[in-house]
Design goal:
Largest sheet: 6 strands, mixed
Number of strands: 6
Structural class: alpha/beta
Helix content: 40-55%
Order of helices and strands: HHHHHHHHHHHEHEHEEEE
CATH topology of the largest domain: Ferritin
Distance between the termini: 44 Å
CATH class of the largest domain: Mainly Alpha
Number of domains: 2
Number of helices: 13
Amino acid sequence: MIDNKKEQERAELHRTIWGIANDLRGSVDGWDFKNYVLVMLFYRYISENLTNYINAGEREAGTPDFDYTKLSDEEAEVARDDMVQTKGFFILPSQLFCNVLERADTDENLNETLEAIFRSIESSAQGCESEDDFKGLFDDFDVNSNKLGGTVAKRNERLVKLMNGIVSMQLGDYKDNTIDAFGDAYEFLMGMYASNAGKSGGEYYTPQEVSELLTRLAVVGKTEVNKVYDPACGSGSLLLKAAKVLGKDKVRQGFFGQEINITTYNLCRINMFLHDIDYDKFDIAHEDTLVEPQHWDDEPFEVIVSIIWTKIQCVFNVPIVSITLDRLFVHYQENI
C-alpha cells in the first residue's frame, strides 16, 4: 500500500529543491549546487536544533516566553561552555540562520558574514572532544567562489536566493516526518546531478530502501547492539538506518565508519548531526580503510554493514551484510 503522507512529504521536498535549482540555474553546476544546498540545510538545522534545546530548557525552568533568537550575543555567551559540552558546538544568536536571513537582503558582505559564521561554528569546538567532528565541515561551501557569481553582489544575490529556498522547505521536526528529509534531499540531488557531473551516483549515496533492507538483515534477532561499523560509509546511510531500525539508544556505544572521499566524509558527519546523533556517539574517519584502517583498537563491532563495489574477503567474526554490483548476500565469517 502506498504511504500517501510519505509521498506527499517527498514530493513537496522535491518541488522545493527544484525551485532552488531554477533560481540558481546557469550559475552553479549540479555537483557544486548539491554541496551548497546540503551545507546550507545543515546550517539551518543546527541553528534550529540549538535554539529549540536552549528554549526548552529555559521554559522548563520557569521562563515560558524565553526565545534564544532574541538574546544579545553578550547575554548568550554564558551558555557557551555548557552547549559545547552538550551539543559539541555553539552559535551566537546573531549567527543563527533565521537572524542572518532576516538581514541578508541588506548585508552587502553576506558572503563574508557566512564565511565568518561557519568558521566560528567550527572553532567553537576547538580544544574540545567534538573538535574532530566539526573540523572542516563547511569546507565544501565556498562563499567566495566565482561559480556563485563574478562579483560580490552577484554572489550575495544567489546566497540570498539559496537561503530563501532553504527556509521554504517545510521540514518541521524531522522526528515527526515519515521521510528522512536530509537523506531524501541528498538522494534526490544525487539523482538529479550525478550523471551530468560524470560521477557514479552509487559511489556517493545508497537508496534509502536498500539501506534499510541491508540493515534489517544485519540485525535479525537483535534488539540492541554494542555498535555499528561501516568500513566504506559514504554519507552514513547504513549507519543511520541502524538507528532507525533498532532505535539510536539501542546502539549503545555508537556509530563508526571510514570514508576516503573528503566531500562524502563531510556529508556523513553532517548527516550524523542532522539525525540527532551526539558527537560522542559517532566516530567517522577520513582514510583509505584498506591501507590505513582507523578502528583496529576498538572493541569488536557487533554488526558491520557495508555497500561495496567489488566483493572482498572479510576477516571479521561478526555478521556482515554487504552488497555487490551483481547480488545481495549475507556473509558470516566464522574464523579470523
